[in-house]
Amino acid sequence: MAIRKIITPPDPLLREKSLRVTQVDDDVRALIRDMFDTMYAAPGIGLAAVQVGEPLAIIVMDPAGENEEPRPKALINPQIVWKADELREYEEGCLSVPEVYDKVVRPAEVRVRYLDEQGEEREELFRGMEATIVQHEIDHTRGILFVDYLGRLKRERYLKKVIKKARLARP
After folding, report:
1. Predicted local distance difference test score (pLDDT) of residue 39
2. So where are the chain's domains?
3. Which end of the chain has less Cβ packing within 10 Å, N or C?
4. Known catalytic residue at 121
């Protein structure tokens, strides 16, 4: 188990589509453990493998609040198979776009098909904040950042801010 470095723009890996996992094995499960360690240490509520430099279609999430029992969930090769017509707006942030928060409108409910950590196919309905988290993380597997849902000027301003901060942080 290890905490991995979370990549930020302008890293081109964030814009690539992730590869499907062909076999759920011990290496995949070790990556998932590292992803949970990284997400909790950040701290965050969701993380995609690409954010730690692994362009695989794997996401982890835990929507539990500070005073709630943890509810960790790993989804391998997640696919949205149904979206509700009803939309909800939530303020989103992203570990790869640090210190940037803005409102994004997404379907209020989604049904997702995925493989679990044993390689078994599952299908699950996500509602409310959990629906937002799973959609946000699935977007990462498609090379999409939450700021892509914002207007062009706002998106460019946010990305410039993140890139500038990353440059200043380099030794």
Report:
1. 97
2. 12-169
3. C
4. no
Q: Please, what is the end-to-end C-alpha distance for the chain in angstroms?
A: 27
Q: pLDDT tens digit string along 113-142?
A: 999 999 999 999 999 999 999 999 999 999
Largest Cα span, the chain? 48
Contacts of the segment 64-70: beta carbons below 8 A, 24+ positions apart = none
Please compute the mean of the pLDDT values over residues 1-7 and round it to a whole number: 93
Read off the pTM: 0.94
Q: Which CATH architecture describes the domain 12-169?
A: Alpha-Beta Complex (3.90)
What does the DSSP assignment read for 79-98?
Answer: EEEEE-S-EEEEEEEETTEE
Angstrom distances, CA of residue 99 to CA of 81, 102, 166: 32, 10, 12
